[in-house]
Amino acid sequence: MTTFDDMLPRLVEVFQRQNDDLVCIRPILVNRDLNGRVRLILDEKWESDTAAKEVLRELTGRIYAELGPHAYPPDQALLFEPDVENFLKEETSFRLEGVDKVYIVDRLAMEGDWADITPPKENAYRIVFFSIKGGVGRSTAIAATAWALAERDKRVMVLDLDLESPGLSASLLPADRQPAHGITDWLVEDLVNNGDEVFENMVATSELSRKGEILIVPAHGKTPGEYVAKLGLAWMSKVDSDGWREGWSKRLGRVFDALEKQWVPDVVLIDSRAGIDEVASACLTDLGASTILLFAIDGDQTWSGYRILFQHWRKMDVVREIRERLQLVGAMIPETGTVGYLENLRERAWNLFSEELYDEVSPGQLLDESGWNFDVADEDAPHYPWIVRWHRGFAALRNLHGRLQEIDRKELDSIFGSLIDGLELSIGGDGETV
After folding, report:
1. Greatest CA separation found in the chain?
2. How far apart are CA 340 and CA 204, in angstroms?
3. Between β-strands 267-271 and 125-131, what pairing exists: parallel, antiparallel or unpaired?
4. For residue 159, which of 282, 309, 321 has the smallest C-alpha distance?
5. Domains delineated in the chain
6. How many other CB atoms are found less than 10 A from the CB of residue 89?
7. What are the pLDDT tens digits along the chain (434 aa)?
8. Which of 241, 236, 252, 198 shows the shortest CA–CA distance to 220?
């Protein structure tokens, strides 16, 4: 029995077995369709080449024999493109390991593939708050960070992209100050070229800041309306009358650019949905974030989840494009046994980062000679956690907005100071506590 996870190693065996016969025919694209079934894509010049067709008939027969239900029969297994080299440039792909000029191209039901890494935006400093699992205090941390950065005279914009679990805006705005619309409303209206109708009324200013400014863009407006129905439309691609298609994450990037142009924030804080899905993919890879905060608690689910993500980046050969933006955040650090907990968290984080993201160090080689690598105790390393302490007064809050109105600065610094100081330094501040 062959499963999806068996496909790549078996394909490697098939291609290596017939390697010499395929030299002239490459590049070859292995297309896995929406059902996880394999076809081959080649340049159309081989479609009328008798010798090449014989080689390909043998190749597709072997693939069908090896992959079974995950491959098309040989008479359905070939697709031809006028310019396969250009086709390859336009598609997200990765090389089949151990085989020259054979690439895997996946068709995904979701738009997010985590491998199309947008360079950091230059006009505003975007920071993503992300976690593999929910319930780690991410939204509380983003609200506290917004307040603290505003107290340092920053103009902070906060965007709630946890669209399926909205509510961050309530932490920073009372009900009577909520804007009329939110990000979901804009995504829906933009599909019919009506985004301008809601754009001016999807931002509200929080009265919590006494020095800088906090601008809130919620998931939905004061009245959610038909929110469930709108969520079903928000992820749609936009197709114009000429058939040009714009994916939903590109539309999201467009409204982000417009919001920054209109309100000119110093820093943008983005609350991502937890987990490995296309919303999180857009937040981490498509929106040009300068810093990506990876919230973590010391548990097997945390490390296995981040390992899956890091291994995907490594397989897709985009690790170097994303790794320098990553920063681990130790979330909900316990009040007792703190030192031992932090040591274990740091060591497990280093094990993960060194195995999946850092450059290898040869025996006898110094770290500073190895490229991008860090010692386990290097406080400037991305694996070395900025910490957020668990605090009874924040853990059981029903009304974070009310709590922030009465905030004690020393208390805030004792809980979130490491995170806030780290961000302040990363965006060019002095890192002093509030």
Report:
1. 80
2. 43
3. parallel
4. 282
5. 4-106 (no CATH), 125-426 (3.40.50.300)
6. 9
7. 689 989 999 999 999 999 888 988 999 999 999 889 999 999 999 999 999 999 999 999 999 999 999 999 999 999 999 988 888 887 888 999 999 999 999 876 556 678 889 999 887 899 999 999 988 989 889 988 998 999 889 999 999 999 888 878 877 888 888 999 999 999 999 999 999 999 999 999 988 877 899 999 999 999 989 999 999 889 888 988 787 889 889 999 999 999 999 999 999 999 999 999 888 999 999 999 999 999 999 999 999 999 999 999 999 899 999 999 999 999 999 989 999 999 999 999 999 999 999 998 765 566 555 589 999 999 999 999 999 998 766 554 445 555 666 666 777 888 999 999 999 998 875 544 44
8. 198
- Indicate the SS3 state at residue 72: coil
For residues 374 and 418, what is the distance between their CA atoms, to the nearest angstrom?
20
**157 beta partners:** 215, 268
Q: Which residue has the tokens 């983005």?
A: 270
301-309 CB contacts, 8 Å cutoff, 24+ apart: 301/132, 301/133, 302/132, 302/133, 303/348, 303/352, 305/132, 305/133, 305/276, 306/132, 306/352, 307/352, 307/356, 308/276, 309/114, 309/132, 309/276
Six-digit token string for 45: 């010049």
H/E element holding 296?
A: strand 291-296
Which region holds residue 101: left if phi is over 0, alpha if psi is between -120 and 50, else beta? left
How many residues make up the chain in this entry? 434
CA-CA distance, 331 to 139, in Å (whole number)?
11
The helix (H) or strand (E) run that includes residue 54 is helix 50-67
Structure tokens at 308: 């899956």
3-state secondary structure of 276: coil
Helices and strands (DSSP H and E) totals, the chain: 16, 15
What 8-state DSSP symbol labels residue 71? B
Task: Dihedral sign for Cα 201, 202, 208, 213, please.
Answer: negative
